[in-house]
Structure formats: C-alpha cells, structure tokens
C-alpha cells in the first residue's frame, strides 16, 4: 500500500528539468542569413555552398511542379516538401554515396540527390513498380509508407555495414509523429546496443497530419529521447542548412569511428498540405503560425547569406529554375514512355519462383491482358 | 428519413452511441479537430468534448493497448485505425490480447471494443492503404468481423458493434464511403451481428459476398437477368461468425453458388464459406461452388488495380461456369 510518510530522496522533477535543459537548438545561420555561431561554421568551399543552394532551389521547383502535376492527374501520391529543404537536402549533402538512406514517404528529394532518377520518383508517385526498382549502386530504399518501420530496419542496415567493414552509415528519416511509434524507440535502442553506425533524423515539422507535436508526448524535445537509448541526441534548427549539415557530418564521423548512432531532431515546417489526397491544413493550423514559419524559410536565409558573400544572384537562381523545369519535363516524358504495368508483372516479382497457384493465375491474367 | 452516404451514416451511428452511453470513447490518429482523414468523426469532438473524442500520439499499438486498458476500467472504446493496412502495428493488441482477454481471465474481464478502420481498393492509394486483411481477423478466435456494404447497414451494424460486449472489428470499404446515398433513419436502430442480408432474391444461383463486392455482384445479377438467369445475392455483412442459416437456405433453394471476395484467393473468407456449404448442403448442389477473388500477389501498385480487383465481369464469367455446369 502506498504511504506518504517519507520525503522523496531525490527531486525527480528537477532532474528531469535539468536533463531537458541540455537540449538547446543548434543554429549557425539565423533568419537573416547571419552567422551566429562562427565556431561551428563548416569549411565548405564556395562551390559546395553554391551546390547546396542549387539543390534547395531545384527541389522547391520540383515540389511546385509535382503539386501541379498531381492536380492535373499526371502524378499520384505526393507528400509536399517545401519548407523542409534544409532539413532534407543538407542532411543528404553530408553523406557519401556508400551511405544507405531509409526514407519516409516525404523524403523523395534525398533519394533523388542520392542518385534515384527523377522519372523513377515520378513512377513511384504514379503507383508503378519500376519506380521502386532502385538502380544498382544507389544505396536507398523506396519511401516507407508505414511510419516507423524504416527506423528498426536502419539499425539492421547499420549493423550490416559494420559487420561488412564498410565505412558507411545508415541514415533514416521520420517525423514528429513517427517519433511516437514503438519502432522509433526500438530502432534507436537497437542501434545503440549494437553501436551500429546509424543516423536517425526526426524532421519535426510540428504536425502529424493534423495532430500538433505537443500532443505526441510530454517530452519537451524529441532529441532528448536519445537519452533513454543511451545515444547522443541533438536538436537542430531545421531551417538552417549549415546547422543541419554540421550535425549530420559530425554524427557520421562518430558513426564511422565506431562510436555508434545519433538522433537528430530538425525543427522545420511543411508549407503545403500533408499530402495531395484531400488534406486541408486550415482545419488545424493558424495563418499566424504559417506566417511565423514563412519567415524562417531556409531558401530565404541561405540566399541572403550567399548573396552577401557574392556567391548567389538572380541569374544563378534562374538558371537553376530553368534546369529544374527542363529536367522535370524530360522525366515526365520518360515516365510516360515506360511500359504500362501489368498484373502479370506483379506476379512475376512475388517470389524467386512462382508457386503453383500463381502460375495458374499467371496464365489467366496473361490471356486477359493480351486482349 | 435522410439521404446519407456511408460515411455520414457512420458518423450518425457514432454520435448516437456517444449520446446513449457516457462510457463510449472515440480516439485515434486525427479523429479530433480534423474529424478523421475521411471525416468519419467530423464534429464529434466539438459536440462531445475532448474527454470523449480525442487524438492519440501516432502509434497503433498504443491505440490498441489504450483500448484494452480503458475497457478494463469500464469504458467502451471505439478506436479508429486510420487505414487497416496499419493493422500489423496493432496486431498483438488485437489478435494477441483483446481477442483472448475474456478467455484468459476465465470470463472475469471482457473487451467491449469496436475497432473501426477503412480498407479496400480502387481509390489509388499508396501501399498498405487498400489491402483486404479481414481474413487475418476472421481467423483469430475471439473476434467478430463486420463489413457493411450500404449506408443503412453501416449505421445499424455499427451501433450493434459498439453495444457488443466482445471485440468487433468494423471494416469500412474506402470506395463505398461516398459512392452513393441511401435513406437512413435518423432514429437509432440496430442490425444484428452475425445476420446476413439477401440483397436480391433469385432462384438459379446464389452469389455470396460482402463489402464492395456486393455491388459488383448486384451488377452482375442485373446483367445475368437479361440472359434469363435469376440470381440471388447474399450480403454476409458479418464475416465472422458467418450466418450459416441464411447461406444454407439460399444454396438449398438455388442449388448453385459462387462466393465473391475482393481479397486474394488463398486461405480467404470465400474458402471458408465454400467449406461450410460443402459440410452442410453438398446434396443440394447441382454444381461445384466456385470463387471469385483477386490474384495472389501483394495488393498491386495502384496503376494495375483496375485489372487486379475483381469486378462484375469476373463475377459473370464464374457465375456462368456454375450456371451451365
Ligand atoms: C503506421 C502508420 N500509421 C499511420 C499512418 C498514416 N499517416 C501517414 S502520415 C501520418 C502523419 C505523420 O506525421 P509525421 O511523422 O510528423 O511526419 P510528417 O508527415 O509530418 O512528415 C499518418 C498518421 C501511416 N502511414 N503509417
Ligand atoms: Mg510532422
């Protein structure tokens, strides 16, 4: 029976508070594009800085075009990415080709910059299996639909890389909602237990569809969840490409050096709807909140930063925009030219060898499909 | 009477039971402010407050465990699993725990839980949003599994499911949510769980089916009528337990039957129906009982779904084999 006679030996609330206070947001560039943390500045070359900007602008255009292609019925499933460019692209920018990406459904841009041909990303959106046939040498999985599943798998990929002696990491992404899944905890815990070279990113864009992050957990930050797994956790300004880059670069270095996984929470925002399948953000987000986050736009601050250094101009920006539009047109054309997917194709990719019942059905559908 | 879509009829049933029983609770992902991604719980949080209708953190196993715990403390939970393809995340809570609670406690505890979830194909979703996984549920001892095919049935069955003192898996076909409207009484009514419904009477062939395939079967029956065949369509409405009485009476009358399901063919509900017919009415049969089902691949990438999903033409083809046997 519980009794309340003794005074608690520990101030447990205080120790929680002290621990939570450790998790401060890491930032290098503020909203004005000013360097606020000179000591942490990465030594990227001018070309690398420009390349990172190029990718962000390109991906913003890709997002806009994808949305309109979806509205025209020329793309299918699509989860908008605008607002999350720093979080997505600067994290991928810190990787090497050998690193293995396990993405969520919103993480198509990272796959593209890791080598997935754009037309295949479009085929994935359209619901064509060729979109998921990742080319040899591109180390990614197709986007995971089941929230959290990729997190446990990342622990496995990381352990495999380590056992093979490959100097590479597994990197995986989920959202603020995803950080509530059992798989999330299992993933970071397993990777920690095996000191596996994994990087776990949580893109905290404040909402899981309509559910605000405050309702996901009593924890003040998602980064602090790393503590329970005994691994480093860091909260990063996810609208700051340089901060995201540095956090991932360092996590990668630790992982490769055998020091185990890191959990990185990036504070970000999705400007668009959850997906293009009928979500209406005005039902659950205020215009004030939207405006507040518009001001943090990663493209705006990085553009300001680069312009001050003389590394960016309207002309350069327009070049990228034209290039993106051109590539998208080409990729759509290539997607259109891909042979239509058949049920018999799907049967043939089920097993190494078809069982008797599939063989029987194969003949039936072959006849149907040749009509 | 009001004209309602299935989704409206579902909301109406939920509202009815929130009013009737203060112990009912609705929770899940995005069911609160957002009213559910299909708007099944639209307006309910506003009307009944956050105590009764609330969002959970994003974790299906959490939703399942919460349901069990709330049932143990006297509540009547109505959790929503946002899409039934996510059932694997909550499989232990459903199939390993709530289905066994009455049994493992020797009757001491029961689980008056209704798990609602959309399922079914034809609307171009990404992976694991359209799969017909009802067979996994029907195969689990301790669960009842209900699949309505019309707005009227949905309301009456859902109210029965909520009032049932054992766990009911209530599966709502995505394609039927807004497919058509029907007269639905505004007052409360129930449709018993475990009772099938003859959606069309006939004397030459019984088509036994459920869910969206009821409508493909009715269409097939219309076509077959033009060729002079009188076809009966039996809508199971509850796939576990089966309404053996109605199935057998229909088959004894017509002497011929086919079973139609949207799910893949192997080890499915249709196989179970065929087995029951063979067990109980073999001497009434003029022909073997055949199945119409989807092929045994994973639910297809959406571009192939129109060919993959069984449709009324497949039903006609199989019906004719049996009619002309
Ligand atoms: C296991 C599982 N549960 C639910 C869903 C449906 N769903 C898709 S996205 C989403 C919200 C995810 O939010 P978050 O993790 O914050 O990522 P974001 O979409 O904001 O990038 C939900 C509930 C799903 N795909 N998988
Ligand atoms: Mg989110």
TrEMBL record, chain A:
<dbReference type="InterPro" id="IPR050771">
    <property type="entry name" value="Alpha-ketoacid_DH_E1_comp"/>
</dbReference>
<dbReference type="InterPro" id="IPR017596">
    <property type="entry name" value="PdhA/BkdA"/>
</dbReference>
<dbReference type="GO" id="GO:0004739">
    <property type="term" value="F:pyruvate dehydrogenase (acetyl-transferring) activity"/>
</dbReference>
<comment type="subunit">
    <text>Heterodimer of an alpha and a beta chain.</text>
</comment>
<comment type="function">
    <text>The pyruvate dehydrogenase complex catalyzes the overall conversion of pyruvate to acetyl-CoA and CO(2). It contains multiple copies of three enzymatic components: pyruvate dehydrogenase (E1), dihydrolipoamide acetyltransferase (E2) and lipoamide dehydrogenase (E3).</text>
</comment>
<dbReference type="Pfam" id="PF00676">
    <property type="entry name" value="E1_dh"/>
</dbReference>
<dbReference type="InterPro" id="IPR029061">
    <property type="entry name" value="THDP-binding"/>
</dbReference>
<keyword id="KW-0786">Thiamine pyrophosphate</keyword>
<feature type="coiled-coil region">
    <location>
        <begin position="314"/>
        <end position="341"/>
    </location>
</feature>
<keyword id="KW-0560">Oxidoreductase</keyword>
<dbReference type="InterPro" id="IPR001017">
    <property type="entry name" value="DH_E1"/>
</dbReference>
<dbReference type="GO" id="GO:0009083">
    <property type="term" value="P:branched-chain amino acid catabolic process"/>
</dbReference>
<keyword id="KW-0175">Coiled coil</keyword>
<keyword id="KW-0670">Pyruvate</keyword>
<feature type="domain" description="Dehydrogenase E1 component">
    <location>
        <begin position="53"/>
        <end position="343"/>
    </location>
</feature>
<protein>
    <recommendedName>
        <fullName>Pyruvate dehydrogenase E1 component subunit alpha</fullName>
        <ecNumber>1.2.4.1</ecNumber>
    </recommendedName>
</protein>
TrEMBL record, chain B:
<dbReference type="InterPro" id="IPR009014">
    <property type="entry name" value="Transketo_C/PFOR_II"/>
</dbReference>
<feature type="domain" description="Transketolase-like pyrimidine-binding">
    <location>
        <begin position="4"/>
        <end position="179"/>
    </location>
</feature>
<protein>
    <submittedName>
        <fullName>Alpha-ketoacid dehydrogenase subunit beta</fullName>
    </submittedName>
</protein>
<dbReference type="Pfam" id="PF02780">
    <property type="entry name" value="Transketolase_C"/>
</dbReference>
<dbReference type="InterPro" id="IPR005475">
    <property type="entry name" value="Transketolase-like_Pyr-bd"/>
</dbReference>
<dbReference type="GO" id="GO:0016491">
    <property type="term" value="F:oxidoreductase activity"/>
</dbReference>
<keyword id="KW-0560">Oxidoreductase</keyword>
<dbReference type="InterPro" id="IPR029061">
    <property type="entry name" value="THDP-binding"/>
</dbReference>
<dbReference type="Pfam" id="PF02779">
    <property type="entry name" value="Transket_pyr"/>
</dbReference>
<dbReference type="InterPro" id="IPR033248">
    <property type="entry name" value="Transketolase_C"/>
</dbReference>
<keyword id="KW-0786">Thiamine pyrophosphate</keyword>
């Amino acid at each position: 029976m519980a009794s309340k006679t003794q005074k608690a030996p520990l101030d447990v609330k205080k120790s929680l508070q002290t621990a939570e206070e450790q998790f401060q947001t890491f930032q290098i560039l503020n909203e004005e594009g000013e360097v606020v943390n000179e000591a942490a500045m990465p030594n990227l070359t001018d070309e690398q800085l420009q390349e990172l900007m190029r990718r962000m602008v390109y991906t913003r255009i890709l997002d806009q075009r994808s949305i309109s292609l979806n509205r025209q019925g020329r793309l299918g499933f699509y989860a908008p990415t605008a607002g999350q460019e720093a979080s997505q692209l600067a994290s991928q920018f810190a990787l090497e080709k050998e690193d293995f990406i396990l993405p969520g459904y919103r993480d198509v841009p990272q796959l593209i910059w890791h080598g997935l041909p754009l037309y295949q990303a479009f085929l994935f959106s359209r619901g064509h299996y060729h979109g998921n046939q990742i080319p040899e040498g591109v180390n990614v999985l197709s986007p995971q639909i089941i929230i959290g599943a990729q997190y446990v798998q990342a622990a496995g990929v990381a352990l495999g890389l380590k056992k093979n002696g490959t100097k590479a990491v597994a990197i995986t992404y989920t959202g603020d909602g995803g950080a509530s899944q059992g798989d999330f905890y299992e993933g970071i815990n397993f990777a920690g237990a095996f000191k596996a070279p994994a990087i776990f990113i949580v893109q905290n864009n404040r909402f899981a569809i309509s559910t605000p992050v405050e309702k996901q957990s009593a924890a003040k930050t998602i980064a602090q969840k790393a503590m329970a797994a005994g691994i480093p956790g860091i909260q990063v300004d996810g609208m700051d490409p340089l901060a995201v880059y540095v956090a991932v670069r360092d996590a990668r270095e630790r992982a490769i050096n055998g020091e185990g996984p890191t959990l990185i929470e990036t504070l970000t925002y999705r400007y668009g709807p959850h997906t293009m399948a009928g979500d209406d953000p005005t039902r659950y987000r205020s215009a004030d909140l939207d405006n507040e986050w518009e001001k943090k736009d990663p493209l705006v601050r990085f553009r300001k930063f680069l312009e001050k250094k003389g590394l960016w101009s309207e002309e350069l920006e327009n070049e990228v925009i034209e290039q993106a539009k051109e590539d998208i047109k080409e990729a759509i054309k290539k997607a259109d030219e891909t042979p239509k997917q058949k049920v018999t194709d799907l049967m043939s990719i089920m097993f190494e060898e078809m069982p008797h019942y599939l063989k029987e059905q194969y003949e039936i559908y072959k006849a149907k499909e040749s009509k | 009477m009001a004209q309602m879509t299935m989704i409206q009829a579902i909301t109406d049933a939920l509202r009815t039971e929130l009013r009737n029983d203060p112990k009912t609770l609705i929770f899940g992902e995005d069911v609160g402010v957002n009213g559910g991604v299909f708007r099944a719980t639209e307006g309910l949080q506003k009307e009944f407050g956050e105590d009764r209708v609330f969002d959970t953190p994003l974790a299906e196993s959490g939703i399942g465990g919460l349901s069990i715990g709330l049932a143990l403390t006297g509540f009547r939970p109505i959790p929503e699993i946002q899409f039934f393809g996510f059932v694997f995340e909550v499989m232990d809570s459903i199939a390993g725990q709530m289905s066994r609670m009455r049994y493992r406690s020797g009757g001491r505890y029961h689980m008056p839980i209704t798990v609602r979830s959309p399922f079914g194909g034809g609307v171009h979703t990404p992976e694991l949003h359209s799969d017909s996984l009802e067979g996994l549920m029907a195969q689990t001892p301790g669960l009842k599994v209900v699949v309505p095919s019309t707005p009227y049935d949905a309301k009456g069955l859902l109210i029965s499911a909520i009032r049932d003192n054992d766990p009911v898996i209530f599966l709502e076909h995505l394609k039927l949510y807004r497919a058509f409207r029907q007269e639905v009484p505004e007052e409360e009514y129930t449709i018993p769980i475990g009772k099938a419904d003859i959606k069309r009477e006939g004397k030459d062939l019984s088509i036994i089916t459920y869910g969206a395939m009821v409508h493909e079967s009715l269409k097939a029956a219309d076509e077959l009528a033009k060729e002079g065949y009188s076809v009966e369509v039996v809508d199971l409405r509850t796939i576990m337990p089966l309404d053996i009485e109605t199935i057998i009476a229909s088959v004894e009358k017509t002497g011929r039957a086919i079973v139609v399901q949207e799910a893949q063919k192997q080890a499915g509900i249709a196989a179970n129906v065929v087995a029951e017919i063979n067990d109980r009415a073999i001497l009434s049969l003029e022909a073997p009982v055949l199945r119409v089902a989807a092929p045994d691949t994973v639910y297809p990438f959406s571009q192939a779904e129109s060919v993959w999903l069984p449709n009324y033409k497949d039903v006609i083809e199989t019906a004719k084999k049996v009619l002309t046997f």
